[in-house]
Amino acid sequence: MLRLPRFRLIEPRSVYQAVVARAEFGEDAAYVAGGTDLYPNMKRRQQTPATVVALPRIAELEEIGGTPEVGMRIGAGVTLARLARHPLLSEYYPAVARAAALVSTPPLRNMGTIGGNLLLDTRCNYYDQTYEWRRAIDFCMKKDGDICWVAPSSPRCWAVQSSDGAPVAVALDAEVTLASVKGARRIRAAELYRNDGIRHLAKEPGELLVSYILPPLGAWRATYVKLRRRGSFDFPVLGVAARVDFAPDGAVTGARVVLGAVASCPLELPAATQALVGRRLDEESVAAAADAAYHAAKPMDNTDFTLSWRKEMVRVLVRRALEQLWG
Amino acid sequence: MTDGGRGRGRERGTTGGGLRVVGTSRPRVDAAAKVTGQLRFADDLALPRMLHAKLLRSPVPHARIARIDTARAAAHPGVLAVLTGRDLPIPYGILPVSRDEHALCVDRVRFVGDAVAAVAALDEETAAEACALIDVEYEPLPAIATIAEALATREPRIHDHADDGNVHKHVSLEFGDVDAAMAGADLVRDDVFFYEGSTHLPMEQHAALADWSSEGRLTVWSSTQTPHYVHRALATVLELPPAHVRVIATPNGGAFGGKSDPFGHEMAVAALARRTGRPVKICLTREEVFYCHRGRHPTLMRIRTGVRRDGSIVAMDFTSLLDGGAYGSYGVASTYYTGALQTVTYRVPHYRFRGARVFTNKPPCGPKRGHGTPQPRFAVECQLDRIAEQLALDPAEMRRRILQPPESVTANWLRIGSMGLGRCIDAVVDASGWRDKFRRLPYGRGVGLACSSYISGAGLPIYWNAMPHSGVQLKLDRSGGVTAFSGSTDIGQGSDSVLAYCVAEVLGIEPVDIRVVTGDTDLTPVDLGSYSSRVTLMMGNAAIDAAERARELLAAPVAATLAVPRERLVFAGRRVFDAERPEHGMSFAEAVQVGESALGTIGTVGSYTPPRSPGRYKGAGVGPSPAYSYSCAVAEVEVEPDSGIVRVPKVWIAHDIGRAINPLLAIGQVEGSVYMGLGEALMEEMTYRDRQRNVVHHHPSMLEYKSITTLEMCDVETMLIEEPDPEGPFGAKEVGQGPLLPIPPAVANAVHDAVGVRIDQVPCSPHAVMRALRDKARGKEGRYGPVSFPDHDFPPPARVPTPEQGGDGREADRRAHAEVGGGAPREARAGETIAARAPEPRRR
Amino acid sequence: MTQPVQIEAPPRQKVQAAFVVNGERHEIAFAPHKTLLEVLREDLALTGTKHGCELGECGTCLVLVDGVPVLSCLALALSYAERPIATVEGMARAGELHPLQQAFAELGAAQCGYCTPGFLLAASALLAERPRPTRDEIRDALSGSLCRCTGYHKIIEAIELAAERMAAAREREAP
Known about the structure:
The structure holds three protein chains of three kinds.
Chain A: E1 8-11, H1 15-25, E2 29-32, H2 38-43, E3 51-54, E4 64-67, E5 71-75, H3 80-84, H4 87-92, H5 94-101, H6 106-111, H7 114-118, H8 131-136, H9 165-172, E6 175-180, E7 183-188, E8 208-214, E9 220-227, E10 238-246, E11 252-260, E12 267-268, H10 270-276, H11 283-296, H12 307-325
Helix pairs in contact in A: 10-11, 11-12
Chain B: H1 31-36, E1 51-57, E2 63-69, H2 71-75, E3 79-84, E4 108-109, E5 115-121, H3 124-131, E6 135-140, H4 147-152, E7 167-175, H5 178-183, E8 187-195, E9 207-212, E10 218-222, H6 227-238, E11 245-249, H7 264-276, E12 280-283, H8 286-292, E13 299-307, E14 313-323, H9 331-340, H10 342-345, E15 351-358, H11 374-390, H12 395-401, E16 408-409, E17 415-416, H13 421-432, H14 434-437, E18 445-455, E19 470-476, E20 482-486, H15 495-507, E21 514-518, H16 535-562, E22 569-572, E23 575-578, E24 585-587, H17 588-599, E25 602-608, E26 628-639, E27 646-656, H18 663-682, E28 715-721, H19 743-755, E29 758-759, E30 761-762, H20 766-777, E31 783-784, E32 798-800, H21 826-830
Parallel strand pairs in B: 1-12, 7-32, 8-30, 10-11, 14-15, 20-21, 27-28, 29-31
Antiparallel strand pairs in B: 1-5, 2-4, 2-6, 3-5, 7-15, 8-13, 9-10, 9-12, 13-14, 16-17, 18-26, 19-20, 19-25, 22-23, 23-24, 26-27
Chain C: E1 7-9, E2 15-21, E3 24-30, H1 36-43, E4 62-65, E5 68-71, E6 84-86, H2 99-107, H3 116-129, H4 135-141, H5 153-173
Parallel strand pairs in C: 2-6
Antiparallel strand pairs in C: 2-3, 4-5, 4-6
């Protein structure tokens, strides 16, 4: 039986208690909500926090508030299952609900939270392995080693952003609130991520993701398309989140196409935006956007499937995503 | 659904009075235990004072062990014993010709994951901590990662017992005259195929518990398919009298061939139990299960087939190269199996087979469901599809015309009994609407068809002996209850149920009246194990034998008591009665009491030994079977042209099972086989990184080893075809493995029908389909697969005249040496096959 | 505002907690880093809950908490203290099989039986929410559990059969 390492467990009952506890135990502590990301990583000794600050008993993290008119606020502790079937969210923010519904498996969606999903550790074929396996290749730079096996001459880690929710958050231009002993702050989702496999989050380590804030409804539509081997279990090998803003005449006034699972952060595609803005969504503009995405995407050997096929699929999936929005 | 049997005369076990139990669908005998969580698997067992074991495994693919220092581990609080290879120096291996494994590596490690030390501690965590405190110094050796590297690297040798360099085993056989026959063909196709390795992935991780008694007797509970072979290996490695070793096979939580070798962890817990005097348990992690492996050999194949215009085969020349991994395992047999059964489905009058298995520094390959035969079946069936296309024939109709006839002997001397493949083809063609679909569906959708055959048990045992392959013992109780003992092991296939059904049928009682005791080497007579689809046929026949003897024993005193002639007695409905006056009789319990009063305690035994095969050449030991099952499948696919993703909405499959002893369970076996075949066809692969990355397993996890979920599984329409075989119990043949075989080629053929490209390798990944589609769009051949076959020097083939040529089953040049006066006993000749080349090591 | 006191469990000491499994309350002392899977199997001897990877990748160890399927291998035991947990051992009542168990047995939905407890519990949660699920709903609900024996067909058919029988029983009981 693969087991967790020993750790000090703290179960705070409030956000305040949580951030205080986290500050007290410093760098060697980690937050955990559903446990579906951290605990497997701990069992494989990818992460070995001496202290775990467990969040499931904090009621304020489980609230869903607001309205589509003013925007909605989702507590970071809301499970993916609850989010996926929430009536307002599935009706007005189908991309958000859909991305949540596509994560992993039904029992893990009952456990995993939206906060955990947005902060999912980056993944890699050379990293998401047991300690013994990683030892056999003398580890990698993300944990215990010096080299990036995906690109051995690279100075950086190429572990891949694998959350379904993150590209959607960036495409929607959603926001998150972060709390720490220093207080709370609210940032754009895009500011949360960095294109570095190791330091992939821009938040301070002690900051706790408290809520996920969706923008008010407007003249925009958004969607999320996921590519993976099986219809369940698998992380994305490619995710495409797209938000398109329309003028009353149907012209595109704004567009954000964001790729998941091709970089260490959700990858925004300004070239795709350029290909769409000022035009209508039609075969030609969509093909141009898909082409721009294809050229920008550089998948690496860090997930399932071959690189060349994943790159080919960028064009196909971007097209499929945008086609969903022109109806 | 089943169709009525078209028996040719009586099969074993039938009485002529009609079957009451056999042929009816009913829950398995252990169903309630399985749905309530009461069934105890190996890791569910616990004994007082039990310790927990962990193994330390090699982080390098190939190295000499320069030094092992266990002092820190031994001193770790809570650790009771630490073992290394030196504590268990005697080698073992499932085949007598390749006893190349050690419980723990002695002086060399051969793959990442090879076990080098074992620790017993108060709990599992402590044992794991102690493993990390064992210091091992490795002197690296060059590692071999692929077939090509193995062929190119003569030194260092992974094993000195290999035939040549790192070629573990060479096989080279020719039946008839292939070149001459090929010259007369209207069309000769020459194709190369690759079938990727895959693993069993049983849901239950291997576990074993050992208990050492102070009298010096050892008991090992293990999730094994082959308690008998584990028993032998434990006695050898631990240097114990076999009579003092008891192996109990716990119910297997899935096995599929992955639990049919003796494993180092079984030896290690036994030795740790002896060392500590306490029970010791181990349960492997999922990663370790990948390292146990013994799964499908990655196999590169070249197949040349000559045919006439009508599709009939004039000759076939088949060559296979198998990536064996680091140890022998069943590999010699696997190699032969890649060449053995090509002749069993279609008539192949002249046949050449050359095969080589190489050693590589990866977990050992061995027998996975279909053992060595899905790979060549993929090659044969994909090539036949091309041949039909080139000859402008319907692939189903063409196959229908070229079948090997029933009651015949093939060119390579396999004796065929019943043969229902033609009926299987007809059934799936009708059910699937083949004629309306093939070459008629819109672009992106297609159907493909493939056939196959499989053995119902191997004709020879793994180690040479003249004893039965299966034994059953019955104890009849005056209560009317019967206990059936057999060494067979239920791995989920339902063998415990088959045992109860066979006994119940013959004695005229209900399965629920029978208690089955199985897989316990102290209590049960030997059955060789749950492999090669042998159990229903062999154990079933042994059960019938034992039950018929019991019926005969009871018949005389009961006939006397009832004053009815013996031959008029009927055993049915828990009664024994006069066939002419059914009301005149007694209950079965009374019959046992009458029998016990007259004869004393009633117990009987039964056994089964397969018939002798006509083949006498070296290598004739692999392929013969008492009976061959047949399958034909049609797969319907949808291919996304812009992604290459293949979905399989439905499979129609017909399986000639001879007789379905329990149609419900038989259909379950077919559906499970389709599932596993579909996984291999679409996504399952056991692959490794290259030498620069230490030949580590690509991703030994349930997440990244892609096993089909409820969302990808196809609909399956199963048709059981009953072509009873005279060798089978009630006519039954196998069903657990054969139905896997036609699935990968049926899918590949359907992909061609859908989008016009040939995928000549398994799995049929979207990447492969996309590449082939792109090539086709560019005017090239729309094909994805291996482009060449290595130029490898095989030994010249041993030439064996075929039955049609008037051969006697021996090699041509050995006929002159045939013993005068039939001197050699049958054993010696049969023993010239793989089984007898290495004698059993002498035991103290 | 006063907050309830937080729980703190140091790494090398055992903690005491109560688990309510199948309606029975068990107070035990155990190491705080143990998962619910480990506590069920090792501390409560409820070995009906099986395990296949301990990483959340197979669904074998699925149990119900508050009627909701969760994977016990990734559930920190301490976080599930005092909450109603259902395992396969609690499905049969007074020796009588649950309709799902009955249907699984009858239709051969358990071959080796190892994944069966997880599938039964996932199915019971589904039927509690959707008494007459469509085949696609069944496939979705079970898509987090792997079975290597059956190809899932008999499992899906058994759930349909059980749903039918349970619906009929409800109708009979309805006034």
